[in-house]
Amino acid sequence: MATWEKFATEAPDLAGVVRERFQAFRHHVLATVRHDGSPRVSGTEVSWWGADLVIGSMPSARKALDLRRDGRFALHVNPGDGSMEGGGDVKISGRAVEVVGAEQRAWVEEVRPPSPDSHLFRLDLTEAVTTAVSDDQTHLVITLWRPAEGIRTFHRA
C-alpha cells in the first residue's frame, strides 16, 4: 500500500498522467464492497488535499458506510468521450482510510462541503493502471504500477 505522495515519488510520469485524467473530469466511478460482499458502484469526485488523494462523502452515504466497514475500493476515471485520447483509460485501487478529528474539521473548514459532518477518506494505493492505444493504433499499451513492483508495461493486440 502506498500514499499518493509515495506513488508520485516512485512513478512521477505515471502519477502525472493519472492526476491529469482525474482532473480532466469532475465525476468518476467508485466501486466499494457491500455488507454482503457484492460490489457497489457510486459516482464520486476526487481531489488532492495536501499530499493526499481524497474523496468526500455526504454523512452516512452508502459508499461511506461501505468504506468504513471495508476500505477496499477501485476507482475508474471518467472515460470522457470514449476515444481514449488524452492519456487513455485510468483506474486505481487500494484502501480508503477515513480521516477524522482535527484533520477532518480542517478539511471541512477549507473545502466547505455541504455538511460539516461529511466524511473524508484518504485513498492509499495498491495499484494504478493506464490503458491506451499505441501510436500506430495496432495494440493496447497497459502500464501498471504497484508499490512493491514498480512500473510494468504490457502490449496487448
Describe this structure in words.
There is one protein chain. The chain is α+β, with helices and mostly antiparallel strands and 157 residues long. The longest helix has 13 residues, at 12-24. The protein has helices at residues 4-10, 12-24, 62-69, 102-111, and strands at residues 28-33, 39-44, 47-49, 52-57, 72-76, 89-98, 119-133, 140-146, 150-156. A hairpin with a 3-residue loop joins strand 8 (140-146) and strand 9 (150-156). Helix 1 crosses helix 2. Helices cover 24% and strands 41% of the residues. It contains four helices and nine strands, in the order H-H-E-E-E-E-H-E-E-H-E-E-E. Strands 1, 2, 3, 4, 5, 6, 7, 8 and 9 form a nine-stranded antiparallel β-sheet that branches.
Short description:
The chain is an alpha+beta fold and 157 residues long. It contains four helices and nine strands, in the order ααββββαββαβββ. Helix content is 24%, strand content 41%.
Question: What descriptors fit this protein?
Answer:
single chain; 157 residues; alpha+beta; Pnp Oxidase, Chain A; 4 helices; 41% strand; oxidoreductase
